[in-house]
């Protein structure tokens, strides 16, 4: 079982820890419009970013940054996954102008969180997702970043450098 930190407290993550090189679990989530979105389909490259809730300052800022920085990558599907209700996601995207990426909810079954090993299982944050980034290409995990501190931020520079080195995307 993996752990992250919140200040001085260890937080356990439940589910199977997946590694680079593993086949990505196929999951269908619901978008802000309740439409299905498939995670890990063959023939696609996806960047999956997980956040505890879009209704927090850090997550909101990172969603806006994702919308700006990652949306320029052609032929890449960028998906933010959180535990927010689809209706709240829709309001957030409309208010914040998030229109270059997909937001998807894992609240109903927590299947993404448990399958990808990023579901928080203890503390006051139990039931939320840890902040993480995955790149999935043709159904395989090719990049993984789990933020060690719950209130920390995804390292977009590292993610962009990976995409540049491996797929030729320009650096922002």
Provide the descriptors you would attach to this structure in a database record.
single chain; Glutaredoxin; alpha+beta; redox-active center; 172 residues; seven-stranded mixed beta sheet; disulfide bond; Tpx_CS; three-stranded antiparallel beta sheet; antioxidant; globular; 24% helix
Query: Mind telling me which CATH architecture this is?
Result: 3-Layer(aba) Sandwich
Order of the strands making up the biggest sheet: 4-3-7-6-5-9-10
Counting helices, strands and paired strands, the structural category is alpha+beta
**What is the strand tally?**
10
Helix-strand string: EEEEEHEHEHEEEH
What is the overall number of helices?
Answer: 4
CATH topology description: Glutaredoxin
The total number of structural domains is 1
Residues in helix, %: 10-25%
Spans where pLDDT lies below 50 across 5 or more residues: none
Mean residue pLDDT = 94
The biggest sheet amounts to: 7 strands, mixed
Per DSSP, what share of the residues sits in E-state strands of 2 or more residues? 25-35%
Q: What distance lies between the first and last C-alpha atoms, to the nearest angstrom?
A: 35 Å
Using only C-alpha atoms, the radius of gyration works out to 15 Å
Shape: globular
Assigned CATH class = Alpha Beta
Written overview of the protein:
The protein is α+β, with helices and mostly antiparallel strands. It has one domain (3-164): Glutaredoxin, CATH 3.40.30.10. It has four helices and ten strands, in the order βββββαβαβαβββα. The protein has helices at 57-69, 86-96, 111-115, 156-167, and strands at 3-6, 9-14, 27-31, 36-39, 45-50, 77-82, 102-105, 119-120, 132-137, 140-146. The strands form two sheets. A seven-stranded mixed sheet has the order 4-3-7-6-5-9-10, covered by helices on one side. The longest helix has 13 residues, at 57-69.
């Amino acid at each position: 079982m993996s752990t992250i930190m919140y200040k001085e407290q260890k937080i356990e993550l439940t589910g199977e820890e997946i590694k680079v090189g593993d086949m990505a679990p196929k999951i269908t989530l619901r978008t802000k419009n309740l439409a299905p979105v498939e995670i890990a389909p063959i023939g696609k490259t996806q960047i999956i970013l997980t956040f505890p809730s879009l209704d927090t300052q850090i997550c909101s800022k990172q969603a806006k940054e994702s919308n700006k920085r990652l949306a320029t990558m052609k032929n890449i599907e960028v998906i933010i996954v959180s535990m927010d209700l689809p209706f709240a996601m829709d309001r957030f995207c409309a208010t914040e102008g998030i229109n270059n990426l997909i937001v998807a909810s894992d609240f109903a079954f927590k299947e993404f969180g448990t399958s990808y090993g990023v579901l928080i299982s203890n503390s006051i944050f139990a039931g939320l997702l840890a902040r993480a980034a995955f790149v999935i290409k043709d159904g395989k995990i090719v990049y993984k970043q789990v933020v060690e501190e719950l209130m920390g931020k995804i390292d977009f520079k590292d993610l962009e450098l990976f995409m540049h080195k491996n797929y030729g995307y320009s650096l922002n």
